[in-house]
Design goal:
With 264 residues, the chain is an all-alpha fold. 77% of the residues lie in helices and 0% in strands. It has 9 helices and no strands. It starts with a helix and ends in a 10-residue tail after the last helix.
């Protein structure tokens, strides 16, 4: 998967240039209005209230829609980390149902598997490293599955295998689910259209100013609040970087390392 341009740049570094760009666009609209008044001195400038209001409403609607999409995806990713933690933890504990000869092999492989799943998040947005962790996880999970499948042929391990197979199957399947949700980001075209709407709104708010002097407080408030909203939309959609991230949820997965130091 090739990331789009919004994926490559942290949201924090996009926010400040966009803030000043909005202020500049508003100033440009204001200057364009003054030029129009000078060109047609007999024309009374009454602003473009209905048009400006409609566009601002459309921009707000688009912002709320995109924010809801980002927030929903963020929460889904968080829940999947918790679910994977439960699946791996359950699988590790169920190793104790087998005799030591099988249990020790499974626990050693699961320990390596857990490290690959931790690495899956800690490599951040490096696509090559992410792919490598997925390949390693698939390889180790295949070894674990073969061990359990072989052990299941022994009638003595029937009860243990009946308990282990469902949790192991869930542990393997959730890898694909997490990778799918990682790739399911807000479409780049949606963000581009949203940015265009915000820029046009900034221009029209400057052009529609009815006074000879701009209200700098209102201009700054519009630019700052709109930029913050856009920042949150993008940052929520990139939980491996930025201030809004999944580090606290990922810590739950790292805590599973403690299962390998207890009751060795």
């Amino acid at each position: 998967m090739q990331p789009n341009q919004f994926d490559l740049i942290p949201a924090f570094y996009l926010a400040f240039p966009f803030l000043f760009f909005l202020i500049f666009i508003n100033w440009l609209g204001y200057k364009f209005k003054n030029r129009h008044i000078r060109k047609f001195p007999g024309t009374e400038h009454v602003g473009i209230g209905p048009t400006e209001g409609s566009l601002l409403g459309l921009t707000a609607l688009m912002l709320s829609f995109t924010f809801g999409m980002s927030a929903s995806k963020f929460e889904t990713r968080r829940q999947l980390i918790i679910s994977e933690t439960n699946e791996i933890g359950t699988t590790i504990l169920r190793c104790d149902l087998y005799p030591d000869s099988i249990r020790n092999i499974l626990r050693a492989d699961l320990k390596n598997y857990l490290e690959t799943r931790i690495d899956y998040f800690t490599v951040k947005d490096d696509e090559i490293k992410i792919k490598n962790t997925l390949v390693r996880a698939d390889s180790i999970s295949t070894i674990i599955w073969n061990t359990v499948a072989t052990a299941s042929h022994d009638p003595k391990n029937m009860i243990a295998s009946q308990q282990m197979v469902p949790s192991l199957n869930g542990m393997i399947d959730i890898v694909t689910t997490r990778e799918g949700t990682r790739r399911a980001m807000v479409p780049g075209m949606v963000l581009i259209v949203l940015c265009i709407l915000v820029i046009v709104s900034a221009f029209l708010s400057g052009y529609g100013s009815k006074s000879l002097e701009r209200n700098k407080v209102l201009v700054l408030a519009f630019a700052v609040m709109t930029t913050l909203a856009l920042y949150l939309v993008i940052d929520l959609d990139k939980p491996r970087q930025g201030f809004v991230n999944l580090n606290s949820s990922e810590q739950l997965l790292e805590d599973l390392r403690g299962l390998f130091t207890e009751n060795k």
